[in-house]
Amino acid sequence: MPQLTPVDHKVKHKSTIPANFGDEIELFVREYKAAGSGGTPKPVLMLHGRSVPALPGFDLVLPPKGSSPHPDTSYSWAQDLAGKGYDVFIMDLQGSGLSPRPKMEDPCNANPAQRGLLKTNPGTGTCSPTAPYPHQLGNSQSEWDELATVVKFIRARCSNEKVSFIGWSAAAFVMGPYALQNPGDVARLFLLAPIFPPNGRWSTHTAAPFAPPPGTGLPTQPESKPPAVFGFPMNLTSKAGLQATISDKDLAGHVWQAIMDSDSTGQKWGGPTAGAPEGIMRWRNSYWWGWNTSTVPYGSTLGTAVPVCIVYGDQDTTANTAEELGPVLHFSVPELYKTIPGADKLMIRVEGWDHNPVWERRANQILQQMSWKWLEDKKVYGVESGSWVMDADGVVTEVE
Q1: Contact 77, 46 (CB under 8 A)
Q2: pLDDT in tens, 352-399
Q3: Fewest CB within a 10 Å sphere: which of 102, 243, 268, 398?
Q4: What are the DSSP calls for 171-189, one per residue?
Q5: Would 115 be classed as within a structural domain?
Q6: How many domains would you assign to the chain?
Q7: 167 with 192: CB under 8 angstroms?
Q8: Domain span including residue 181
Q9: At what angle do helices 172-181 and 140-157 cross, to 10 degrees?
Q10: For residue 123, is it within any domain?
Q11: What is the pLDDT of residues 316-342, one digit of tens each?
């Protein structure tokens, strides 16, 4: 597929992150217009997870191969959908990628347990005990607010059509509760390896189930500043740490470069040799609530007004963790499927996939096909509901 030309936007937003509450900031949004567009727009919004920003995940473009003068766009999930007739939008939340990163420029604001990654580039020995910002950066409400701003922007560009969501990993914390609270905005939901804590944080206020949970400070007015939970605003991942999660080592170098291209500050940090930084992936530390077995049935929205397709790998130990880890860190994709109340829900477990199939050649192509068919026909490989498993040969079998 020939490379499509993106249009990059800076979408104005009044921040509700405690670190820059009330400031007007600009959220990064990339747009690909549908190839041969005409007629009713079909908008799609793609959202990244906890650590990897949007472009390396959804719009990875490799240099030309062999005698070809054209870049390799086969890994670009976004361009594939645009080529099939969708208006595709990709966004970075604050604290990620090309959107603002408040309180993340100072290495002293990094997770204390990870500051060793910065000993060489830059040093952290001069940190004052009072210098770091002692709070987590984002929270569920601030990220729902950012998503709302971008959805409004997209609908204004697309004849007010509903937007289909595609979310990877921890994007589920943002897109899932948003769909529950705003079903009139969302056409369909496609979740890859969604993070779902069955007993995760939630509000005890029956009249306000998506309010901050007890102990975080409940705003008394709609425009009140959200709670700033104690912690730190920024996590760090080294080049070696990220590349260890990618089996294709040649591709891993391209992924890392794309991450560095999204972070002019992080690319100057890290590495074992003084004066020769190899880069650090900086990612927001957020405090999430409102996504658990108590809230997913809210309004009987998911699986009815908003059809849901879930895809995950049987080797994914990030989205499926042990109960012994406790309510905040125990994740289960099958429990999410079970909790969705409506019948318009489909789950496919793929044998051999881990948490990063977007960076596996064959898996990426299968993902592109799955998401397209769900958006187009509300069917994947001819099935539209139920729990299924796909083996290494692509054979899909229903789970009893």
Answers
A1: yes
A2: 999 999 999 999 999 999 999 999 999 999 999 999 999 999 999 999
A3: 398
A4: GHHHHHHHHHH-GGGEEEE
A5: no
A6: 1
A7: yes
A8: 7-101+144-232+287-398
A9: 70
A10: no
A11: 999 999 999 999 999 999 999 999 999
